[in-house]
Recover the amino acids of this structure.
């Protein structure tokens, strides 16, 4: 988890105890059908030589995500055989997860991305809030935390019925690309 993320520990506790966590997937803010940035001036520029496919596999925003230990073990084992790709969010939650058919549990609706936006409160169902790096980051985080404390006086929320499980299909060409990078191509 990034250091500019506010965690609503009350909502997170409720979520972890809910039936939503029964799914052996990665619970996260989900990115789908994202194209690698091909503009050379981009911080995240990826050349065709580095990654020749037109789209990344579905992957999680790296600010915060959750998984059960069995999922973590599967990703770790896969990492022993798949050469590293420097965009870590894509590598771990996209490439490794896709090759192992790890499902994604889309919790985007419980994840606040407030980078560059004015925000003063956190709802009692919000699990994570990514604040970005405003000039007054400490003040902003303190303000959001006070909101978490103030608003979380309600009973547990029923997360199970409000998450979407995305069953994994391997992106066409991904396994071939990994085999070539691993030196295991036929």
């Amino acid at each position: 988890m990034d250091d500019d993320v506010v965690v609503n520990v009350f909502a997170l506790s409720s979520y972890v105890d809910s039936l939503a966590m029964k799914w052996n997937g990665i619970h996260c803010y989900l990115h789908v059908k994202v194209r690698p940035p091909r503009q050379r001036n981009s911080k995240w520029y990826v050349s065709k030589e580095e990654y020749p496919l037109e789209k990344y596999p579905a992957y999680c925003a790296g600010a915060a995500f959750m998984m059960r230990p069995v999922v973590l073990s599967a990703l770790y084992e896969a990492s022993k055989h798949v050469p590293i790709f420097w965009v870590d969010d894509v590598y771990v939650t996209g490439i490794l997860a896709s090759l192992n058919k790890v499902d994604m549990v889309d919790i985007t609706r419980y994840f606040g991305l407030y980078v560059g936006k004015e925000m003063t409160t956190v709802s009692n169902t919000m699990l994570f809030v990514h604040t970005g790096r405003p000039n007054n980051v400490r003040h902003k985080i303190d303000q959001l935390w006070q909101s978490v404390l103030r608003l979380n006086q309600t009973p547990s929320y029923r997360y199970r019925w409000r998450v979407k499980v995305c069953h994994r299909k391997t992106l066409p060409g991904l396994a071939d690309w990994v085999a070539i990078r691993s030196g295991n191509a036929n």
User: Anything to note?
Assistant: The mean pLDDT is 84.
